[in-house]
């Protein structure tokens, strides 16, 4: 086959024209760095290898771009890459990035767990669920969640102080607050402990106000 044309579609992509007929699209850098040129010949097997290399290069570039924005778990990044690349290509890219140290689920899980606990104020069970959703193994997610510094009842207490302070004066309001915490992933035990701690604190503040 003769490469009749390498038509620029956008910045990073060529549309190859082979023997006057549109063929596959390939990455600009991959094609330019290859030995193939417009007017030259390419065999079907060589074309297949060129397309495979192009898919890998594009997926690799996308992975580096995404990792420049934030950290990813291996499976989470793999799923992202699969939106544009075949599954085997996404797996190969993730495997390579893991080999060179740019992906590490253990490090990711520890950092993400700390962030979810500190900024989202998630209880440990919710932290574990979120990590699993992002592709971290359940065992690793459980270990990372268990290492977070703040106890669940302390997280619940902080939320109650911030959002429901002076709004828990009757049973209905307390039930609404408790339901909101349950939806957030808190256990009934942690919620009860937080409610009791807040009640004790309120009583202490009232006593101090009259002293």
* Biggest β-sheet description: 3 strands, antiparallel
Class inferred from helices and paired strands: mainly alpha
Radius of gyration, in angstroms, nearest whole number: 27 Å
Q: Count the helices. How many?
A: 10
Taken as a percent bin, the fraction of beta residues is 5-15%
Residue ranges: pLDDT <50 for 5 or more in a row?
203-211
Q: Reading side by side through the largest sheet, how are the strands ordered?
A: 1-2-3
Fraction of helical residues: 55-70%
Q: What is the H/E order?
A: EEEHHHHHHHHHH
Residue-averaged pLDDT, rounded? 90
Morphology call: elongated
Number of strands: 3
Q: What separation lies between the terminal Cα atoms?
A: 95 Å
Walk me through this protein's architecture.
Helices cover 64% and strands 10% of the residues. Helix 3 packs antiparallel against helix 4 and helix 5 crosses helix 6. It has helices at residues 28-32, 44-69, 74-81, 87-99, 105-119, 124-133, 138-146, 152-163, 171-183, 188-210; strands spanning 3-10, 13-18, 21-27. The chain has a 3-stranded antiparallel beta sheet with strand order 1-2-3. The chain has 211 residues and is mostly helical. The N and C termini lie far apart (95 Å). Residues 203-211 have low confidence and may be disordered.
Descriptive labels:
211 residues; mainly alpha; three-stranded antiparallel sheet; 10 helices; elongated; disordered C terminus
């Amino acid at each position: 086959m003769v490469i009749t044309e390498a038509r620029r579609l956008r910045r990073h992509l060529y549309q190859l024209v082979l023997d006057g007929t549109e063929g596959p699209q390939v990455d600009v850098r991959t094609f330019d760095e290859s030995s193939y040129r417009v007017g030259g010949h390419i065999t079907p097997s060589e074309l297949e290898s060129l397309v495979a290399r192009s898919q890998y290069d594009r997926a690799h570039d996308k992975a580096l771009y995404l990792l420049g924005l934030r950290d990813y778990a291996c499976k989470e990044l793999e799923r992202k890459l699969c939106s544009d690349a075949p599954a085997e290509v996404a797996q190969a890219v993730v495997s390579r990035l893991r080999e060179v140290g740019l992906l590490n689920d253990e490090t990711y899980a520890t950092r993400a767990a700390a962030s979810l606990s500190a900024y989202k104020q998630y209880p440990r069970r919710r932290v574990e669920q979120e990590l699993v959703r992002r592709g971290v193994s359940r065992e690793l997610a459980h270990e990372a969640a268990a290492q977070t510094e703040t106890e669940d009842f302390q997280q619940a207490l902080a939320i109650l102080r911030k959002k429901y302070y002076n709004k828990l004066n009757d049973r209905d309001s307390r039930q609404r607050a408790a339901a909101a915490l349950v939806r957030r992933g808190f256990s009934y035990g942690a919620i009860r402990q937080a409610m009791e701690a807040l009640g004790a604190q309120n009583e202490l503040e009232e006593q101090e106000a009259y002293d």
